[in-house]
């Protein structure tokens, strides 16, 4: 990577629907979110750089590189990474300059993995519209392996959305496709927003907790008979532009998560969650694995919702708002 080259910027992501249930076979819908982003850079003591952040990022890249090297030496590395060039650049001060908060469910590690693949993979699969299923799944497989360094396990979806920079729907275990979200039936006050829990969450332990809970037959049955159908209906109705139906399905989905995923929701967010269900002004759900970070909100009256949170000294960040 040459420091004078034009840098490729990678956006954060927001999983609108499918967190946790996607592990059990539901559909998933993820969109890029340009509000937060990151890019590969070199530490430059003469420019405006948070040196502590940059040095910490460089150290993290060294740790990731060791993991990649072990995979390469054992002939297990899926992506063909130019490890010698990557090692050289890390020694020169390579780091990931990012505004994507870590532990917030917005794909901070996914953006980094996408950036590394783009810059250092030999014969990288180019991101383009209308990619074949084979290319998408090869990318997903390569990304999942590298990102598992951070989370223990990874679906590869986060890096994939960061790499493609386009909404994607995971329809089933064999089919991923780029999609457009229709604008018909979207009203001026319709919005998707983020609520900051002001604490961070750790994906690995929470995914393990979920997997442990699915060993209980009754819990697994709830996932299969309630959460998965609700998730799939929300995605299908959103992609079909049927927002009334989407909001109708969103409410029981939100109630399900509040009741069955309460370990993933901080207490003060649970209160806001319940208030939204009671006043029907807005509806909250998980954004990623939960535990902290951002939670996702949907409303048909953004102005009133913003005022509601302001009265509680809480800002909300729009992800999507019709103007």
Tally of individual domains: 2
CATH fold node name of the largest domain:
Ribosomal Protein S5, domain 2
Low-confidence stretches: none
User: End-to-end span in angstroms?
Assistant: 39 Å
How would you sum up the major sheet? 5 strands, antiparallel
Sheet-strand content, in percent, reads 15-25%
- The SSE order reads EEHHEHHHEEEHHHHEEHE
The percent of residues in helical segments reads 40-55%
Principal-axes geometry comes out as globular
Structure write-up:
The protein has helices at about 50-75, 85-90, 110-120, 135-150, 155-165, 205-215, 215-240, 245-260, 265-280, 300-310; strands at about 10-15, 30-40, 95-100, 170, 175-180, 190-195, 280-285, 295-300, 315-320. The protein is globular, with a radius of gyration of 20 Å. α1 packs antiparallel against α2, α3 (about 110-120) packs across α5 (about 155-165) and α8 runs antiparallel to α9. A hairpin with a 2-residue loop joins β4 (about 170) and β5 (about 175-180). It is built from 10 helices and 9 strands. Strands 1, 2, 3, 4 and 5 form a 5-stranded antiparallel beta sheet that branches. Strands 7-8-6-9 form a 4-stranded antiparallel beta sheet. The protein has about 325 residues and is an alpha+beta fold. It folds into 2 domains: about 10-180, 2-Layer Sandwich (Ribosomal Protein S5, domain 2); about 190-320, GHMP kinase, C-terminal domain (Alpha-Beta Plaits, 2-Layer Sandwich), CATH 3.30.70.890. The two termini are about 40 Å apart.
């Amino acid at each position: 990577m040459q420091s004078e080259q034009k840098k490729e910027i990678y956006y954060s992501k927001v999983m609108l629907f499918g967190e946790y249930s996607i592990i059990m076979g539901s559909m998933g819908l993820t969109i890029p979110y340009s509000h937060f982003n990151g890019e590969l850079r070199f530490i430059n003591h003469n420019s405006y750089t948070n040196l502590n952040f940059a040095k910490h990022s460089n150290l993290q890249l060294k740790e990731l590189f060791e993991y990649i090297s072990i995979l390469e030496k054992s002939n297990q590395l899926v992506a063909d990474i130019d490890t010698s060039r990557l090692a050289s650049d890390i020694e020169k001060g390579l780091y990931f300059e990012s505004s994507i908060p870590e532990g917030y469910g917005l794909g901070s590690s996914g953006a980094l993995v996408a950036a590394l693949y783009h810059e250092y993979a030999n014969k990288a699969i180019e991101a383009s519209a209308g990619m074949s299923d084979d290319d998408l799944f090869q990318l997903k497989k390569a990304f999942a392996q590298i990102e598992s360094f951070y989370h223990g396990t990874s679906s590869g979806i986060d890096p994939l959305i960061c790499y493609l920079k386009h909404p994607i729907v995971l329809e089933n275990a064999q089919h991923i496709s780029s999609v457009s979200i229709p604008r018909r039936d979207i009203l001026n006050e319709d919005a998707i927003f983020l609520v900051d829990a002001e604490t961070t969450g750790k994906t690995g332990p929470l995914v393990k907790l979920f997997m442990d809970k699915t060993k209980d037959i009754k819990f697994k049955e709830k996932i299969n008979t309630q959460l998965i159908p609700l998730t799939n209906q929300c995605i299908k109705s959103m992609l079909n532009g049927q927002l009334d139906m989407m909001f109708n399905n969103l409410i029981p989905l939100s109630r399900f998560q509040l009741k069955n995923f309460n370990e993933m929701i901080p207490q003060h967010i649970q209160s806001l969650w319940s208030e939204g269900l009671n006043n029907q002004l807005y509806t909250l759900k998980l954004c990623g694995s939960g535990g902290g970070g951002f939670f996702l909100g949907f409303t048909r009256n953004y102005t009133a919702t913003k005022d509601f949170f302001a009265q509680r000294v809480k800002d909300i960040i729009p992800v999507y708002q019709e103007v």
